[in-house]
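Q: What does the assembled structure look like for these inputs?
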Amino acid sequence: MKVCKFGGTSLASAQQLKKVAAIVQADTSRKIIVVSAPGKRFDQDIKVTDLLIELSTAALTGQDIQKPLRQVMERYEQIARELNLGNEVVTLIENDFLQRLLADPSHPVLFADQLKAGGEDNSAKLLAAFLDSLGMSADYINPLEAGLVLNDFPDRVRVMPHSYERLSSLRKKETISIFPGFFGFTESGRLRTFERGGSDITGSILAAAVKADLYENFTDVDCVFAANPKIVENPIEIQQMTYREMRELAYAGFSVFHDEALMPAFKESIPVCIKNTNNPEAAGTMIVAERQHSKRPVTGISADSGFSTLYVSKYLMNREIGFGRKLLQILEDEEISYEHIPSGIDNLSVILRNHQLSPGKEARILHRVKHELEADDVHIRGDFSMVVLVGEGMHNTVGLAARATDAIARTGANIEMINQGSSEVSLVFGVLKHDEEKILKELYKEFFSPVYSY
Amino acid sequence: MKVCKFGGTSLASAQQLKKVAAIVQADTSRKIIVVSAPGKRFDQDIKVTDLLIELSTAALTGQDIQKPLRQVMERYEQIARELNLGNEVVTLIENDFLQRLLADPSHPVLFADQLKAGGEDNSAKLLAAFLDSLGMSADYINPLEAGLVLNDFPDRVRVMPHSYERLSSLRKKETISIFPGFFGFTESGRLRTFERGGSDITGSILAAAVKADLYENFTDVDCVFAANPKIVENPIEIQQMTYREMRELAYAGFSVFHDEALMPAFKESIPVCIKNTNNPEAAGTMIVAERQHSKRPVTGISADSGFSTLYVSKYLMNREIGFGRKLLQILEDEEISYEHIPSGIDNLSVILRNHQLSPGKEARILHRVKHELEADDVHIRGDFSMVVLVGEGMHNTVGLAARATDAIARTGANIEMINQGSSEVSLVFGVLKHDEEKILKELYKEFFSPVYSY
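A:
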């Protein structure tokens, strides 16, 4: 059986729901359908989730809630009308939102969670009603009853391990299950939501729970491209890649998936396929545990800006057992996670994302490194970009680093950092932000244009 | 004024002491002379320090001490005889060793220290007597009286900060001070020695204490070469390099200096010159705090084997604040210092020296990483070599990494690890041991042969 997840654009309008229905109907193994809230119909449109955030803010601050509630309901009403679903489901949805507005407002975060989750929940009810109207046997599934159990507030939300056992019974259902993404419930029945984009996680959890043959993730692109199509003209499509490649690409700019979304599927080695609701015939991109190496050593190239480096030097640093650990402890005290730690003999740099820093944190870090670690020099530089070459075949390709560094040299850019050697599937370059685009283009040319590659 | 340190080969024979005397006489600013124990006169010869270790072992284990003591005394006697110094100094030296043999044997390490230190101490007395006999006004300096104070047993030996103040009075002496290297005394008057090669440290401490204009380190090579002359034919001489370059080169195979030796000189920015006792006219290699960049971006290339990598992978590792710190804590618990930590997205490697590992440590580390850090995969690989390109001019040379990786690709070898980006003066490659030599040769050709370079 297959678990299919449809993203916001796939549920944005009646026309889109018809495409979803056709996709579900075309393959009887598509038995579990996870849905997002209705997304944008056009570029300037507002997602239902954003309308719901507005509604919850209005309710919490004592402002008028009629207008934002109307905006939300209009989206559902319009879809129901155009699909000829009648008033029953619309009333059901409206009552649901009114019920949510009565929730306890003393925890603003939990109150907002209640409203936001309504986007997905009612999207699921609407799709179930539509499939039913088409004569397909489909049930809306309540995550509380189905057993999608989350840990308790206020810890960072995560799924509890026993959820998988409970959710596995969905496998036995004869009918098609329509499951709202994005939220679950604590043991005590309190609703909590994942981070934004969390419907991908719900789909991944369900795929793992029912041990699906495939987790199909429907979005609005045909596939994952080997490089950002906004920068590289007509990049090639990636037909297949491994989880590791996906993760390494996602690190710097490939935002197809929410960061943690693939974890449950990864743990059960369930293949994932990224497909296009608007063009379901396209093969899409398969993400698998292992794949045969292609002739091309590089699978994709990603690039992202917004990195800083914390540079620390101290004479005889590398004789000092515990130096690195103490430095990382200082970062941990500031709740900072880091990306890389390139090191010389008496110095090291910590590469981290700019959003991890603030003037206060920077000042405290610099002070502590200088005084507690007695560093000779410590400073922070911003304006870095990371460019990452990813490919399972890279590790044993002699001369690959030479081709990459040659290509970068051709652009006239300086390489600030190189990190290779752990993952075996990636080669990371730190460059100055203003060099990022030209480097990405030249690397793409080197590894993917027909003249240069294999 | 200048502080001069002479190594073991410079004091191995009467002929060598004559060279030392000529060097001291040639420049009146050479006022403080630090000496090692007599070293090897020929390839199969035994250093006096090794004879003294034998002597101390014999004394501690109740074996015959006459023969090893004879061997030691013969070395000093022969030098004294050939320099026509008469019996007085020989008797002084013999009494000194006999006195040392009466030391308290209950601490075998301290007992051995007493005997080993006699090598340098009596070398200093002999040189002072010889310079005196030449009409040069020279005094043997007792480190206890001069105030070279060390921390207490059993902590790792290091100089106490107030030593510098006490030793600074040597600057005022009219006569030439002959100072034995390698040892000092605790506040309570207990003798302790530095690690082997520690006379370099004594010289560096004295240079810092008297704020010398130059610290001349006399050895048996004309200079430091840009690459190991045992592997590269006729490598060029390095005329000048910075402390940083020296440190980075020393890291992988350039063993001109004891690791910590330059620290005191470095802190006072005292220039260091490596010179040849057997060819004092050669300019030698200057080690300075800062230098003008030469046209050549690379100053030297070193290579060393004996490295291992500890590889750890865990899905979503880089979202987990504290992961790296916990890993380093496990290594710290095993008293292991590491060299580099190249990292991918969900994995990292720790590069460390093989001698830091043992089967027991490896097993404990693997077990803890697997279970405490819940790693998906962890393993250790040996047989790595590190090849390091060093040069102050490297950082801003566009295309340098490309030239280096091209050169390595020409050898057909695979690059296992690249680390660049912190030090700005080095580029480190991890390669398999069996590829080390050919890579070193090719990199030398690329950056130093007249055809290729600048």
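Chain B touches chain A through 71 residues (CB under 8 Å).
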